[in-house]
Amino acid sequence: MLVIRPLQQEDLDDLYEMAQKAGKGLTTLPADRELLQRKIDMARESFRQRCAPEAALYLFAMEDVEAKKTVGISGIQARVGLDEVFYNYRLSVTVNASSELGVHVRTPTLHLSNDMTDVSEICSLLLSKDYQGGGNGLLLSRSRFMYLDEFRSHFSEKVFAEMRGVSDEEGNSPLWDALGSKFFDMEFSKADVLSGLGNKAFIAELMPKYPIYLPMLPSSARAVIGRVHDNTAPALKMLQAEGFNFNGLVDIFDGGPVVEAFIPSIRTVRDSANRHVMVTRKPVELDVPADEKVMVSNRSFRDFRVTTVPATCVGPDTVKLPPEVAEALQVESGDSVRVTSLKDRGSRSLSGTRGARQGRRLGA
Amino acid sequence: MWLVRPAQLDDLKQILTIAGTQGARLSSTLPKESDSLARKIELSVASFESSLPEDQAPRFLFVLENTDDGTIGGVAGIDARAGSGEPFYSYRKDALIHASHELGVSRRVEVLYPSHSLTDQTLLCSFVIRPELRGTEAFELLSRARILFIAEHRDLFTSRVVVEIQGVQSDDGSVPFWDSLGRHFFNMTFEDADRYSASLSKTFLAEMMPHNPIYVSLLSDAAREALGKPHDVTSGNYELLRREGFQEGCYLDIFDAGPVLEARTDSLHTLVTSHRKILHGRHDDDGENCLVAAGEGADFRCVLAGIEDTLENELKVPVKTWNLLGKSAGEAVRVAPL
After folding, report:
1. What percent of chain A has pLDDT over 90?
2. N or C: which end of chain B has fewer CB within 10 A?
C-alpha cells in the first residue's frame, strides 16, 4: 500500500538515494544532503504552522507501507517570489504597423516578468523508477490538489507548475545557448543547478532586463519556447487533464512552459466529495486498475494522508475501509474523509452521482 | 575651374545622374526620384534666399560645377537642424555592467538604445561626387566649402555638427546590420526602407522601429562586426572629416550601423583656420592654392585659387576668379588653406 504523508526526518536517506538516481534536470531536488535536510526542516515547520503561511513549503512523501520505504516526493510552495524574486519570460506580441506603407509586422517578444509572485506552486515531483506506472504518479501529484482544496486559505486562488523545457542528452538547452549564455557565461546545467539551490539572486543581477525580440534568436531557440522536454510530456498531459493551461509564461533558462489552474476548477477538486469512514472486516482487494481507484484523504492539515481504495468501497454516504487502510490514514469509523477518483472517469465520476453531490454539500 | 554654388532647379538632371551612380544608402538624403529631388532643390533655393517660413528648418544643397563646360561633379548638403522638424533617429551604443557579488561575476553588456538625441543638431549630408573626382582637390573643395558657408552664416547653425557615414554593405547589396535587426521589424529590404525614409514622412520609422533597447550580443556576428564601421567607399570622405575635427561618438545609423561623426562647430578645422580678407587682384595663377569663399546666402560661391597673402589683411586673388565669386576689389572674402 502506498500512502502520501508529510515528509519526515526518516525520509532523508531514501530521498538522497532517489535524487542521486534522478541525475540532472530535477533542479528542485538536487542530490545534496544539507539541502535536503533544509527542505525536510522547512516542511516540518510548515505542517506545524511554525512559519509564516506564505513562506510555507509543504512536502509530501509517498511511502510504501509494507516495505517501509520512501519512494516518491511532491510539494506545494505556498507562495513564490516573496524572499527572492521569481522570474519568468512572458511570451507576448509586439505589433509594428504603418498605414502609410500598408505594413503590419508582428514580432513575438519575451518580456521579463514577475507575474507569478504571490502564487502557489506545485513542485518537486519525483517518483522512484521502480514505482512508476499503475497510477502511482497520479496519486503522488493529485493528492496535492486535495490538500490545496481542503486548506484554501493557505494558498492563492490559482496554482501553477513550471514544466521542464527542452534540452538534449548532454543537458544543453537551445534557448540557453542562444540567450542565457550570452549573459551568464555559464553552462546551462550549472546555471540550472545554481537556480535550484536557491541561489537565485544571481539571475536578477545578470539577466537582460529589456524585452527580447524573438526574430533575433536562431530558429532552434525559437522552436523550444513554450515546449516541454520529452520526459515531461506525460506530466504536462496529466496536468492538462486536470484543467491546467499554458498561461503565456516560460522559464527564463530553457523556455519550458508555465501551466496554471484555478483551484476550484481543478478536476480532482471538482470531483471530490466527503464521506464517513466505515471500517470493515470484510477483506478488500486493493490492487485494482488505476481507473477504478479513488483517492481518500484524512483531511488533516498537520498529518495529511492520502491513499487509494477501489471505487466500489465508496457508498452514498460512507466509504468502506479495511483496517490497515484506516490505520494508514489514521482514521476511525465515523471520521470524515474526502474521496475523489484517481482518474477522470467521465460520467462515472463520483460527483456525477446524486448522492455524492449531496454528500459533498453536507460535508462542506 | 571648379566652383561650389547653391544648387538650382536647372541642375536637376545632372544631380539625378550622379545620385543614380551611388549605392543605396544615399537615397535617404538625396532622393533618386525626379519629383522629390525637385522639391529638395526648391527647398534649398528658398533656404539660401532666406524665404522659408520661420518654423521651417533650412536645408542647403550645394553643387560642384565645372565652370569650363557647366557639368556638375558632385553634390553636398547641410541640414541646419537634423530631422528638419521631425525626430532624427539614431542608435546610441551604451554599456551596462551586469554584476553578481554572490558569484563574483562582472560582465559588460552592450546595448543599442533608440535615440532622438541628435535631432536639431546641424547635419552635413547628401555628399556625393563622381567617382573619378574622389581624392582630388575638387573633392576637398566640395566638402569643405560647406564649413566655409557655416563660418559665414554661423548664426544659422548649432554648436555641434554631425555627419552620418555610410555603414558596411556587402558586394551583393546586403547590409548585415539590417538583416540582423531592421529587416525583422520593417519586413522590407534595405533598399526599400532607405527609399521610404527619403520619400515618406519619418512617422514610419516611429511606427516600425523596435522601441526597446537591443542587446548587441543577440545580433549576428556580421552585424556586430559592422557596428560603427564605415563603408570602404566612404574612406576618403571619412579621412577628410577626421582631419576637419570630426570624431566618432556613441551614435550609429539605424539602418546600417554606420558611425555618426560629431564635432564642435567652433572647433572645425576649416572654420578655425579661415580668415576674412579684403579682395585684391593679381594676374598670376601660382602661389598657395586655397579655398576662397564669398557671398551671402544665394550668392555664396567657393573656389580654389592660387592666392597671395599680404600683411594688410588683403588677399590677392587672380582676377579671373572674381567673376566666379561675384566679387570685385575691396569686397570681403573668406580664405582657408587646403
Report:
1. 71
2. C
H helices then E strands: how many in chain B? 11, 15
Residues in contact with A117: Cβ distance below 8 Å, sequence separation at least 6, in sequence order: A80, A81, A82, A85, A86
How many CA within 13 A on the CB side of residue A135?
Answer: 23
pLDDT score recorded for residue B36 = 85
Name the helix (H) or strand (E) containing A183: helix A181-184
The answer to whether A316 and A256 have CB atoms below 8 angstroms apart is no
* Contact flag A215-B101 (C-beta cutoff 8 Å): no
Beta strands at A273-279 and A318-321: parallel, antiparallel or unpaired: parallel
10 Å Cβ neighbour count for B264?
13
C-alpha cell at B210: 523596435
How many other CB atoms are there within 10 angstroms of residue A126's CB atom? 19
Q: Cell match 540532472: residue?
A: A24
Nearest to B212 among A97, A207, A210 (CB): A210
Residue B102 distance to chain A (closest CA, Å): 7
Quick check: is B116 catalytic?
no
Residue found under cell 501529484: A141
Q: Which three cell numbers stand for residue B134?
A: 574622389
Q: Write the pLDDT tens digit of every residue in B176-223.
A: 999 999 999 998 888 888 878 776 667 788 888 999 999 999 999 999
A103, containing H or E segment: strand A103-113
Tens of pLDDT, residues A236-295: 999 999 999 999 999 998 999 999 999 999 999 999 999 999 999 988 999 999 999 999
Mutate to test the interface with B, among A200, A210, A217 (most CBs of B within 10 A): A210
Enter the C-alpha cell of residue B171: 558586394
Q: How far is residue A130's CA from residue A156's CA, in Å, rounded to a whole number?
A: 34
Say how many C-beta atoms besides its own lie within 10 A of residue A16's C-beta.
16
* Backbone angles phi and psi of B135, in degrees to 5: 80, 0
Rounded CA separation B28/B37 (Å): 11
Best to test chain B binding among A111, A202, A203, A212 (most B CBs inside 10 Å):
A202
Q: How far apart are the C-alpha atoms of B217 and A110, rounded to whole Å?
A: 16
Task: Check: CB of residue B20 under 8 Å from CB of residue B116.
Answer: no
- Tell whether A97 lies on the interface with B, counting CB pairs under 8 A: yes
Give per-residue pLDDT as tens, B217-261.
999 999 999 999 999 888 888 999 999 999 999 999 999 999 999
Neighbours of B297 (CB within 10 A): 17
Q: Which residues make Cβ contacts (< 8 Å) with residue A33, sequence separation at least 6?
A: A12, A16
Q: Which three cell numbers stand for residue A40?
A: 525536510
| Helix residue spans in chain B (DSSP H) | 12-20, 34-48, 137-152, 176-177, 183-186, 190-199, 203-208, 221-226, 235-244, 269-273, 322-325
Mean pLDDT of chain B: 90
